Amino acid sequence: MTAAFQFQEWLATHSERAESALDRLLDSAQTTPHRLHEAMRYSAQGGGKRIRPLLVYAAGQLSKGKESVEALDAAAVAIECIHAYSLVHDDLPCMDDDDLRRGRPTVHKAFDEATALLVGDALQTRAFEILANANIDATHRLRMISALAAASGSRGMAGGQAIDLESVGKKLDLVGLKQMHAMKTGALLSCAVEMGGIAAQLDFTQMTQLANYSQALGLAFQIVDDVLDATADSQTLGKTAGKDAAANKPTYVTLMGLDYAQKQAKELQETAITSLDGFGSKAQALKDLALLVVNRGK
């Protein structure tokens, strides 16, 4: 990667790569049971920024020619399957009860609640099936599986969602809010970067630098989500705006105010970018993704 790196060109190329990999690695709607596979594709391919697959690809570029192209595709699709499943379940009436996702009816509205529940179950298991068959040596394959399992479970995304539900109508201090967001949102974002680094066969020091980057980025991502929920409309968001405030959920905006939240997001963006200094120009895509995340909605 050189100083002439063109991020928009990279973004278009790798977004298309993610879409192509999703189409290839998900079962077709003609596979029995047809309705379930149609709904799985509806949820996973129905738009979205593909931030997590893009982070996988960007981290994978840090290698010295050791990365497995097929393994990066497998990691990108696996983490997007987990993300899609989390959104499907999050939108259910027993959770956040939303009718709109990515500008379209949520899965339980487009299909039905039972199908939505099964879509989440099936996307989760498909993610690990894809990683189990990834074209990379067994040691690195197992590391990716372990990373995704930890990021998805009770000490990661699912645990963060549980804290979120338990916190409705309650007051969280800043430490508690950061912990919730680190688990609910940050864990999967960090995992995307980690799996890209694993596929690139980076060493311990490099993986630590990536972890510092992704932890700052994950928190910045959620803070920006909180800001957008409070300031943007539903058409811009592609989902129902103002849901957190209406549900009396603790957010950075409600706890610390809009100005603080925006300032904190910018500071975390700078922390993330600075963490990549040791990688030189190879990390430009990761740096530009940090800018993209924080500048969403502007």
List the defining traits of the structure above.
Farnesyl Diphosphate Synthase; 15 helices; 69% helix; 1% strand
Which strand-content bin applies to the residues? under 5%
How many H/I helices? 15
- What CATH calls the topology is Farnesyl Diphosphate Synthase
Secondary structure: helix percent: 55-70%
- Tell me the total number of β-strands: 2
The succession of helices and strands, N to C, reads HHHHEEHHHHHHHHHHH
- Number of self-contained structural domains: 1
Strand order of the largest sheet: 1-2
Short note summarizing the structure:
The chain is mainly α and 298 residues long. Helices cover 69% and strands 1% of the residues. The chain has one domain (7-291): Farnesyl Diphosphate Synthase, CATH 1.10.600.
Explain this structure to me?
The chain contains 15 helices and two strands. A hairpin with a 2-residue loop joins strand 1 (100-101) and strand 2. The chain has a two-stranded antiparallel ribbon. Helix content is 69%, strand content 1%. The protein is globular. It has one domain: Farnesyl Diphosphate Synthase (Orthogonal Bundle).
